[in-house]
Amino acid sequence: MALINIYKFFASGFLTGYWPFPGSGTFGSLISIIVFLIINFYIESIIILGAIFIILLIIGFWSCSKIYNNTNPDPEYCVIDEWAGQWITIFFLPVEWFWVVSGFFMFRLLDIYKPFGIKKLEQLPYGFGIMVDDIAAGILGAVILYIVYIII
Asked: Structure pTM?
C-alpha cells in the first residue's frame, strides 16, 4: 500500500469517509460512536479509552496534514475530524442511549453550523483547521450536554 493511501485510510476515518451517499461526515460520526461504544464496553477504563482517543487525535492531525492542499483543504472523504469531535462530545457523558443519541445530534448540529467562531478555525493552515473546528464543536457539544446532564 502506498504511503499516500495510508494517509487517506486514516484521514477517511478508517475508510468510513468513502460512504457512497451524501453525508459522509454524518456516517463517519455514526460509525465513530459505534466504535466508541464497542471499545467502552470491552475496556471499561476511562484511562485506556482516553489513551485511544489521544492516539486518534495524533493520527487525525498527522493524516490531515498529509492530505491537505490549498485547492481542496477538507476533502469530503476526510472524516477523522468527525471521529475526534464526536468522541469528545460523548466522552464524559453516561453511556446511555439518551445521552449517546443526544451527543450524536448535538455534535452534528454544531459541526454543520459552526457557531461562535468555530467556522474561522477551518482556516488554520496545513490541515490543522480540518481537525480543530471539529474538536471545538465537540468541546462545545460536550459542555452543553454536560450542563443539561447536571441540571437533569
From this structure: 0.92
